[in-house]
Amino acid sequence: MSEKKPVNWTNARTLIALAILVGTELVGASWAAGWALGGLFQLGPGYARAFELIFIVIGFVGLYFFMRTAVAHEPIRG
Questions:
Q1: Which of 11, 17, 59, 72 has the highest Cβ tally under 10 A?
Q2: How many CA atoms lie within 13 A of 62 on its CB side?
């Protein structure tokens, strides 16, 4: 078995901060977009919440792919 490389804490802290910052912005903007479109189309409360939920999920999926790319460029180990 090959030995694991030590954790590069500088990169790990950078990625944690990046996840918090970008995650807050991306998920918050997605949620706000769902809320705004629900209000724009004058949907009922249940449909508006469903719209918000769909957009929140899209925001989390975007965050997942963003972080996957960020970890590929700033590896935690190595």
A1: 59
A2: 16
Q: What is the pLDDT along the chain (78 residues), one digit of tens a residue?
A: 667 889 999 999 999 999 999 999 999 999 999 999 999 999 999 999 999 999 999 999 999 999 999 999 999 987
54/36 Cα distance (integer angstroms): 13
pTM: 0.85
Nearest one of 68, 67, 41, 63 to 52, comparing CA atoms: 41
Q: Which two tokens stand for residue 67?
A: 């972080």
Q: Which of 61, 56, 78, 68 is nearest to 15 (CA)?
A: 68
Between CA 33 and CA 54 the distance in angstroms is: 10
CA–CA separation, 57 and 1 (whole Å): 39
